[in-house]
């Protein structure tokens, strides 16, 4: 079964493995298959579920809500997000303005079939809206009981500091950041993590398997596997592109004996690796088939010894992305529409 960790400097516990439905529900897999994977997650001990209004343009929230219908609400931690264009994608159907935040949370609650979400997240930083406006809206949502806690996604260290200060002034808790993080993508380690540790903010990390590259199925010098994420635009092929460099794929193959020595599969090693970091509260995983979860959840509770961690670093060498300046390029400078 899955272990639990506290999320940030709060009393909220989340499962070390969070089930996320980006690029799967209402897109990659049929609704019936999506429901089966959600139920498999529950059976494996996962109680934390992450989605966003932008996933499949709001449809993914509907699928998740139906899949969770009938479950004891108090036994679940449900997260969603807002920022990216949704619905008709008009000029106010995006960003972190007060108008869009309120319309987004109300829509998300309806689609998810719940009165509140445990964590409401700013999906990116909005350079076109005053931060005071955004956090005042968040504070009002918390006081109305529509969200219990506030989080963000892919914010820089400076943005986290500003947001945390405003949240504290308004009497609410900013407790999490949701960045990309894996053995191959470590850009948060230089600035974001130290700031987060100081502020009491946890990381809920997405793509711990580097878009599937850390499963080892993408072989150097070989065609991309048929039906894989790299060959399917619906599955986020554009996100995996940077991880398909020949030298990187060669480095990943060097992880196989390390995983075997640790008694783990490659996916389990990838997830266990991110969970070794004390600032990581949970690793986000998706699944298109229930059996995928049966493998990945076994990474919860695994302790990797110092020799294994050193072997991973040696195997990957210069293939790792670690420049903290890359954290400043994620949020769009202007709203998308």
Automatic annotation (TrEMBL):
GO molecular function, one term: oxidoreductase activity
PANTHER family: HYPERKINETIC, ISOFORM M (PTHR43150:SF2)
This protein's UniProt keywords: NADP, Oxidoreductase
Family: Belongs to the shaker potassium channel beta subunit family.
Record domain NADP-dependent oxidoreductase: where: 17-315
SUPFAM superfamilies linked: NAD(P)-linked oxidoreductase
Gene3D superfamilies, alphabetized: NADP-dependent oxidoreductase domain (3.20.20.100)
UniProt source species: Leucobacter komagatae
GO cellular component: cytosol
UniProt-listed InterPro entries: K_chnl_volt-dep_bsu_KCNAB-rel, NAD(P)_OxRdtase_dom_sf, NADP_OxRdtase_dom
Pfam families to which the protein is assigned, alphabetical: Aldo_ket_red (PF00248)
Protein name: Aryl-alcohol dehydrogenase-like predicted oxidoreductase
